[in-house]
Structure formats: C-alpha cells, structure tokens
Amino acid sequence: MDADFDAAVLGLALPAGVEQALREAGAAHGDPVQVAAALMRAHALAPEHPAVLIAFYRHHFYGHRLRLARDVARRALTVGARALALPEVWLTVPPRALPGARHDLRTRFYLFVLKGYAYVSLRLNDPVEARDALALLRALDPEDCVGGALLEAVRQRAAAADADDIAYVPATGAA
Prior knowledge:
Blueprint lengths: L4 H5 L8 H10 L4 H14 L4 H13 L3 H19 L20 H19 L3 H14 L7 H20 L8
Helix pairs in contact: 2-3, 3-4, 4-5, 5-6, 6-7, 7-8
C-alpha cells in the first residue's frame, strides 16, 4: 500500500468492493445499522486503507461515539506512521518537524489524524492525552500547517478554567 498511499488518502486506489461499500455507507447515512454494516464490509476488505479509516472515524465521531472514534484514530496513526517510516506508537515519535506538512499527503494525513486524536481526547475529558498529542503536533508541524495552534489555545483555556474552578472553594458554614 505504500506506493499507493497518496492515492489512498484521496479515496483512490480502493480494492474491489471497498468503493461500493463506502458508497453504500454514505447513501445509508440515516440508518446507523446499515452504515455500520457497509463500513464493516469495507474494513474486512481493506482494514488499513486510509479512506476506510477516515469513514469509520467520521461515522463514530458524528454518531457521538468518541471512544470508538479515538480508537480508529489510533489505528490511523499507526497506518500513517508506517507510511512515513515513523515509530508506530505516536508517543515515541521524535518531536521534530516533518517535511511536507504543507503539501505531502502522507504527512498531512498523519498530522490531521493526530489533531483529530487530540480533539477527541479533549472531548473525552482526557486533558493529558490531548496535551501530549498537541505538543507532538506542534513539534511535527511548527509552521502550523494543519491548524493545531487553535486547538492548543482551546485546550489551554479549558485547563485555565478548570484550574479556576479548583482554586475557588466556596466557604461553608455560618459566619
């Protein structure tokens, strides 16, 4: 799949049957059971195809199944890491700028997946995971080509608000 990764990120180079399954999933958007069945067929045929992973992520994300969306993002990070010859576990990726953040499809796929992973981690109230993912994103994309800085600002505001809530302890008892 490495040779076809760029095409795969664009939803091209789909194995036989996968394109049909993804079309069925899109057409059945009002029926989560039919969508899931079609996505499972696509996954059975091409479990590591970026288009299948993106479709599954969106299905879970927009269905408010954030833990499942984050699980898909982890799988997508592994696939993206392989395409870039990075360590498969995102926490072990060296924190240095990746060339191609502006135009290289493999790099952009990895960076956007990492950003999505951080966002879902924030939504799941997992601030440490979000912070670590955003720190890596900032190191990999110092020019902020995928817009991680805005999400980091949101994370910092949320952390400051949480700190204010903890710092404010109302007095109890009678005066």
